[in-house]
Structures are given as C-alpha cells and as structure tokens.
C-alpha cells in the first residue's frame, strides 16, 4: 500500500509541476519613434514584489552589464519592430519583472508579472514608456462567470462606457516628411 501511495504522490507532484508554464511568450511591439529611434535594452528577471516596488531605474540598469542570478533574459529592442521572445520561468514560480531601459523614461518603464505566470504577454511601447500590456485572462470558474442577461433587459443592466466627443491629438515625432 505504501509503495502505491508513493507512486501516487510522485505522479501528483509531476502533474502539478506540469501545470505551471515553463516559458512565457513575450511579444514586444516597438513603433519607429520608441526611445527616440534608438535601440534599448529589455531585462526580464525574477523579483520580490515588495523590492520591485522600491527599485530605482539605476539599480535595474546596472544588471544589464553585471547580471546577477535573478536575470533570466536580456535583449536589445529595436524601434520599428515586433520582437518575440520565449522566456524561461523560474522553477520556484516567483514574480517576474520586465523592464525596458529607455534613454529618458517618462512613465511606466517596467511591468510586474505575478504568479500564476501567464503563458503569453503582449507589450506595446511608446516613445519613452510602456504604452500598454496585455495578459490573456485566466479562464474563469463557473462561480466567477457573469450571470446571463435577464430577458427583456439589454446588456443585463450593464452600460457601455462613454467615449469622449473629441479624441485628443497625439504629438507628432520626427520621421520622414
């Protein structure tokens, strides 16, 4: 009986370990004006979420030239490209930081990926910050799924957000005229 229990325990551990993704597909969209048209570094590393919140840009930038054991991947991001990376996740399942080392960061320059680790992340960059990032949502359980709209009610009582009447004009940056 104990041999059978040992086999079941080992099998359970293997199956549970297989549930966590071993890699993350990271897609980075960098328009031509990103980082004022200059290449820059991206750094992916394992972090403690509490320390991540207090890290200075200079501390993170130092890890490009002298990576420590938390650094999982570095890459050069070229403006005007879409680059795809496969990043190995840490075995312990810790949080990951994806940092973009802009020449003159103005806003969000890094993002935190907390466990459970997603299988894919799409990041769009702007001139000197992360414009947006998207992580595919986890499949909700039956309890978390929204209720179906009641008969006779449009949208189940939910209202669509209002868009501004006039969208703000975006700044224009150098390029061909």
Keyword list:
globular, alpha+beta, 8 strands, disordered N terminus, four-stranded antiparallel beta sheet, four-stranded mixed beta sheet, 177 residues, 30% strand, Immunoglobulin-like
Helix content estimate: 10-25%
How confident is the prediction overall: mean pLDDT? 77
CATH class of the domain at 20-137: Mainly Beta
What structural class do you assign from the helix and strand content?
A: alpha+beta
CATH architectural category of the domain at 20-137:
Sandwich
Q: For the report, how would you describe the main beta sheet? A: 4 strands, mixed
Order of helices and strands: HEEHHEEEEEE
Query: What is the rounded Rg?
Result: 21 Å
Strand tally: 8
Describe the protein:
This protein is an alpha+beta fold. It has a domain at 20-137: Sandwich (Immunoglobulin-like), CATH 2.60.40. It contains three helices and eight strands, in the order αββααββββββ. It has helices at 2-19, 49-54, 57-65, and strands at 23-30, 40-47, 71-77, 81-88, 95-101, 110-113, 120-125, 130-134. The protein is globular.
Brief rundown of the structure:
This protein has 3 helices and 8 strands; from the N terminus they run αββααββββββ. The protein has helices spanning 2-19, 49-54, 57-65, and strands at 23-30, 40-47, 71-77, 81-88, 95-101, 110-113, 120-125, 130-134.
Break the fold down into its secondary structure elements and pairings.
Layout: H1 2-19, E1 23-30, E2 40-47, H2 49-54, H3 57-65, E3 71-77, E4 81-88, E5 95-101, E6 110-113, E7 120-125, E8 130-134
Parallel strand pairs: 1-7
Antiparallel strand pairs: 1-4, 2-3, 2-5, 5-6, 7-8
């Amino acid at each position: 009986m104990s041999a059978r229990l040992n086999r079941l325990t080992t099998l359970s551990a293997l199956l549970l370990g297989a549930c966590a993704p071993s890699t993350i597909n990271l897609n980075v969209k960098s328009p031509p004006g990103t980082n004022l048209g200059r290449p820059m570094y991206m750094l992916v590393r394992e972090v403690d979420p509490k320390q991540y919140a207090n890290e200075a840009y200079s501390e993170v930038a130092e890890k490009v030239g002298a990576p420590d054991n938390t650094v999982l991947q570095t890459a050069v991001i070229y403006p005007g490209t879409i680059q795809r990376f496969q990043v190995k996740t840490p075995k312990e399942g810790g949080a990951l930081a994806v940092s973009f080392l802009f020449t003159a960061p103005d806003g969000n320059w890094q993002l935190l990926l907390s466990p459970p680790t997603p299988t894919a992340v799409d990041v769009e960059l702007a001139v000197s910050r992360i414009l947006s990032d998207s992580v595919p949502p986890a499949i909700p359980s039956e309890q978390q799924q929204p209720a179906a709209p009641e008969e006779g009610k449009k949208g189940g009582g939910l209202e669509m957000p209002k868009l501004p009447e006039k969208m703000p004009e975006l700044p224009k940056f150098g390029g061909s005229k």
